[in-house]
Amino acid sequence: MPLLIRCGETCWTSLSMEWCAAIRVVADGNALVMSCSSIVYCASSARSMWEGGVEGSEVQFSLGVQVPASPGRYETDPGFRGIPFRLLFASIWPTLSEMAIDAIIPFKPKNPKTRLSCVMEQAEREAFAQAMLSDVLGAVRAAGCAPTLISTSPFEHPAARVVEDPAGLDDSLNRVLAQAQGPVLIIMADLPLATPEAVRRMVETDAQMAIAPGLGGGTNAIFVKEPSRYHVNYYGASFCKHMAIAAEAGLTCEVTDSFRLHTDVDEKEDLVEVLIHGRDSAACRCLESLGFALSIERGRVGVERRAHKETL
């Protein structure tokens, strides 16, 4: 997957569970998007230079190997001197969807989804939450995004970087937005029906940002091209608040009308949508393993848990 690299910064890409490769831009005034094999195009922050006719200009890179120092931290291997590279700008200008967009996914691994306590024990809710998370991760990665989990407690996942932050949802996300160097997608972890197409539709908006509303006035996903100009305010009728924040910031905003992103799972009634529309999802397989199935009674569709002979 391409990496967005800014001058003076080091970007990381995992080569294995133990080693990472760091590619550092040493030229001045450029931002580049590069793949593992070659430089493919100039990134957005260098657009003015690009349009000014720098095609064919050389920039120098050095490749250094880093080793884990402690969980979440890396240090340079003192025995490795680095390998210099000289690369040429290509004449291809990327679309936003071709860049690796940061996807921030808040996640609560311990005792999540308490409104499902009437039908699931804590361990079952934790397993179900992780299944839904896997579905969301699959969608954002297939859409070309680079996922980072903001976890309220210690947690690891092989498909995403994890940052532990026990602060509240708004504080955690607003800190990310304030520090972000490029476009950011915020997407909730309880959207098991999410698809790459739905995510891609959000990040390819022509507006300066896009919002996918959730059930009951909530907000399930936010994409913003200039995150430092925006802040979030979740809980309550957050969709209305987020639209107002966009207007106050002078940002054009598209409302993403997507059933796939609209359907979040909080209540027992929401399980029906997973069993009907998420047949290939990890969340559906988890529910079926727990004994959940569709139930039709008096013309209404619900779910039953066969293990308990109980209609919900």
Write up this protein.
This protein is α+β, with helices and mostly antiparallel strands and 312 residues long. It folds into three domains: 3-94, no CATH class; 98-262, Spore Coat Polysaccharide Biosynthesis Protein SpsA, Chain A; 271-311, no CATH class. It has helices spanning 47-51, 122-142, 169-179, 196-203, 238-248, 259-262, 271-277, 282-289; strands at residues 3-6, 10-14, 20-25, 31-34, 39-42, 58-70, 73-76, 83-88, 101-107, 145-151, 161-164, 184-187, 209-213, 219-224, 253-255, 292-297, 300-305, 310-311. Strands 11-10-9-12-14-13-15 form a seven-stranded mixed sheet, sandwiched between helices. Strands 2, 3, 6, 7 and 8 form a five-stranded antiparallel sheet that branches. A three-stranded antiparallel sheet has the order 1-4-5, with no helix packed on it. Helix 2 (122-142) crosses helix 4 (196-203) and helix 2 (122-142) packs antiparallel against helix 8 (282-289).
CATH topology of the largest domain: Spore Coat Polysaccharide Biosynthesis Protein SpsA, Chain A
* Shape, principal axes of CA atoms: globular
Give the ordered list of helices and strands.
Answer: EEEEEHEEEEHEEHEHEEHEHHHEEE
| Biggest pleated-sheet summary | 7 strands, mixed
Helix/strand-derived class? alpha+beta
Uncertain regions spanning at least 5 consecutive residues: 1-97, 308-312
> How many alpha or pi helices?
8
Helix content: 10-25%
- Tell me the CATH superfamily of the largest domain: Spore Coat Polysaccharide Biosynthesis Protein SpsA, Chain A
Gross CATH architecture of the largest domain:
Alpha-Beta Complex
Could you tell me the number of beta strands? 18
Average per-residue pLDDT, rounded, comes to 76
**How many domains?**
3
CATH class value of the largest domain? Alpha Beta
Percent of residues in beta strands: 25-35%
